[in-house]
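dude i think i finally got it to work??
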Amino acid sequence: MPNFGYTLMTEQSGPRDLVRYAVAAEQAGFDFEVSSDHFSPWIKEMGHSPYAWTMLGAVAQATSKVELMTYVTCPTTRYHPAIVAQKAATLALLSDNRFILGLGSGENLNEHVVGAPWPVARVRQEMLVEALHIIRALHSGDQLSWQGDHFSVESAKIWDIPEEPIEIGVAVSGDSSIAKFAPLADHLIAVEPDAALVQGWDSTRSASGLPGNRKVGQIPICWGPDKDAAVMRAHELFRWFGGGWHVNADLPTPIAFDAASQFVTQDDVAESIACGPDLDALAESVKPFLEAGFTDVAIVQVGDESQDQFLAEIAPALLAKIRAL
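look at this
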């Protein structure tokens, strides 16, 4: 049976609200919760971007059974991989081993703020490979000194680590990233329902003698009692969504995302994001991920003002319909 999750969307809600939504999502029956990890929202209308790790620490204490996951953290520029290893270990302890560390090669939007140059995709992937090795080594509990092509670590040791190994998921987008990360990570992360990604990942792991694992996807929906209003809200907040990873990874600011999406219409958004009160239509929008072989799908409910009603009144019935698929 696939698992279905709720997205703690840090770009559209403040930290106190996100903790409240996390509790409500657990009560509504979601299996896991993922959190974005941004320094900036994609566009200014979203209006938020609290520090994901502080929020997740509070969520770990406020919930008791849902899995938690970063979706995703970039451990190469804004954060040094040794710091990510320490943060992940602490969160795993606070959550009683309910935490999965989701990693990716990052977006310029969040990483440029520390003044470092933004590398090309090939270099970003090389940095992520090295970061993965550092994080795994530090999670062993041993002292580490490391001098690599991109990172240095000097006599580092994480003193508080969980007894169970911290599982790591990595975001991939094609054959190159699959070849690099399938042998290193525990789980696949992707935002498109691409069966070829799943098949390529499984084939690469099988060739390396590794077992099958989880494939975690994510999809936005915009539930609302009025379909036209829901489409308007989705367009206001998620018109950037159709740009795709290869565009979105390189744009540096919310202003740039606004410019890149200025010609996206409400009809365009309605074609890519299920909107309105029809729970059957919302549930059906998840089906491509299931057909592509994803084992886990996280739902993004677009719009902060709709979250309380969505979680209290809509989510249990929607989850029942999705699970019936």
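The two ends are 10 Å apart (CA to CA).
im so relieved honestly
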